[in-house]
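Throughout our pipeline, every protein is held as a single compact record rather than as scattered files. The record that follows is passed on verbatim for readers who wish to inspect the format.
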Amino acid sequence: MKQEISLYIHIPFCVRKCLYCDFPSFSGMDGMFEDYVRRLCREMDEAAPSFYGVGVKSVFFGGGTPSILPPALMGRIMDKIMSAYDVNSDAEISMEANPGTLDAAKLREYKSMYFNRLSMGLQAWQDRLLERLGRIHSVGEFEDNFLQARDAGFKNINVDLMFSLPGQTMVDWQETLEKVIRLDPEHISAYSLIIEEGTPFFDMYEKGQITETDENTDRRMYYLAKEMLSDKGFRQYEISNFAKEGFECRHNITYWRTEEYRGFGLGAHSYVDGTRFHNSADMKEYMAGGGRLDMEKLTPEEMQEEFMFMGLRMNEGISREEFLKRFKTDITSVYGQEISELISEGLLTENKGRISLTDRGIDVSNQVFEKFIR
């Protein structure tokens, strides 16, 4: 069987950085676009010989806001990927695309460049909440861009949503779900807001200007999403992700199944041949050709840990057979006690050799995952 890998491409530019974002991204750096793309293409060129004969099963452009790039520069990146790597004919090629940076002409050009999946960041249907999050777009702009993407030929669109936002009510969240479901995307990601240290939201939280949503409301919002999306044919296949049949995000499944991926661009992370590393998140250092940072060869025990806590994020859970195949040892000899205890507590369940979280387990998933970290 041919070896395969996924590629991640980081575009660290934004029109304006959202108040909750802790990813390496910058606004007001339009003058750097061309130099950054040149450096990115050089990095991909240098790495390409290591992946000769390896099939690329997915490519994901994340950010930042990849759709901020002019189509000509995006085309240069795509040309480099297609010429330097063995991209499978059925590869999933995704781009994060934020409303406010899109128009009909740009979307048509992206569609002509092999892109076959868009991930559009909406977050909420209420303009007051979008403004509070620091988003650059209105609900109307999102809706226009979504329909333009359909007209351009995109048949696989994800919409990102967030709940437990400061000032968001259950009525707001229900309206958001109803309106997005009506647009009929193929995939919906629904994440609970986490106030990360180092973001403007964290500073506002520390000053008492915003408050965290209480746990009871957070869980009510989560279960409302689960119920409404299930009723409309969206199958939950991961804690925060719901898809129509056959439209699960193949790139993200690579991460959850702890398969190999190679990241390019500022701060991008990679996992290749059992080794984790990442690029510098300092723009000056990256542009100067800074090499791989924090090279870490994982031990068999660390690989087993990641297999468990990443795989359990998916509704299919983890497979006893796959554990044995990867690690040449039975899962019971490593985690038998932990699995038995968590099943008896109603947090895990087992069916036909697959171990997965229960609904109660999802509610306390971080506590479950900790059980598998030695």
